[in-house]
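Morning - WQD inputs below, output right after.
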Amino acid sequence: MISKTVLVTGGAGYIGTHTVLHLLLAGFKTVVVDNLDNSSHLAILRVKELAGEFRNNLSFHNADLRDRDALEQIFVSTKFDAVIHFAGLKAVGESVKKPLLYYNNNLTGTITLLEVMAAHGCKKLVFSSSATVYGWPKKVPCTEEFPLSAANPYGRSKLIIEEICRDVYNAEQDWKIILLRYFNPVGAHPSGYIGEDPRGVPNNLMPFVQQVAVERRPALTIFGNDYNTIDGTGVRDYIHVVDLADGHIAALLKLDESDIGCEVYNLGTGKGTSVLEMVKAFELASGKKIPLVMAGRRPGDAEIVYASTEKAERELNWKAKYGIDEMCRDQWNWASKNPYGYGSQKDSTD
Ligand code: NAD
Ligand code: WQD
């Protein structure tokens, strides 16, 4: 059993909760810092319940990463072996309207974290990057060496943080940093007890589909059916959030075993699925019909994006286990048990 202590920033969020649960079950002591800007304390309580005998290995601090004093106190009270850094704002459209909010939160939060980590001699980091840094790739599958670009301030914040991490390692080579580029995380824990609960109108495909299925929204708008793909709709690499959570454990173990420097890995399945294929799989899993409205392309969307998984398989010894049928089954299980996420109809923003 592992007896290490990990700080998880943004651990109350969608990917964070699933990862924290897996960390606890693997024997890690886990400290979460989250300002609950896009999450609920109930999610932390549910993770504790799911963790059973390991529940007391989880502690939670409601704090903003940019609050240096609060972060200092957390590092003074606990010695961390590593940090997994999820905390950040992630809505692409909002980032276009409020770039300074995104740069302030994502960049200042990360810089403050890195400074406090260095001051306390904790120099092992796993960072949540994104496939968004591949922009509209010229070919697929995307390998980690592809040229990088950003189509919006959110994506640019990820690119800049990746560069900051490379600079930090180049300056002080006792840092060990893994940048994980997630493709499209979907699904939920099979218990149906934790899952994704976005505030307001969902930006992403599957949370929107889920809200149509529970009749919170009348129809799914398909953004473009004139792409050069199997059925004209955009193709993405959807990955089960439980597989993604496991990818973080693999990354942590990698930080321990080797002189890794600053290294980047894709976390995807390597398979492309169109919007219509995904909708069909969800209809099958849920028994619900999803009404569709065809619309034009969404600005900034790429045609086809999916991952090369070779590097992660080879070096992290990690491979996604689940396909879209399991993703849709678990997403529906979560949605049907929690149609209003962690809240209730009364406090929803519909
Ligand atoms: P999420 O919004 O559910 O979780 C992020 C968490 O960070 C939230 O709980 C939020 O309250 C917290 N947070 C934000 N700013 C903070 C701050 N300044 N201080 C403290 N806490 C703060 O998002 P998620 O889907 O779980 O994504 C986690 C990470 O993965 C993010 O960095 C995101 O950009 C990245 N990512 C997500 C996806 C995706 O599609 N979900 C894809 C690629 C990368
Ligand atoms: C998937 C497909 C849409 C909604 C985004 C971010 C990326 C990463 C993951 C954080 C596309 C189509 C969607 C809808 C639709 N997040 N779609 N109707 O765009 O691949 O990536 O989330 O890092 O940075 O950009 O994911 O789920 O928004 O879209 O037709 O209501 O579904 O056009 O083809 P995307 P998505």
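Note: The longest helix spans residues 99-119.

O.
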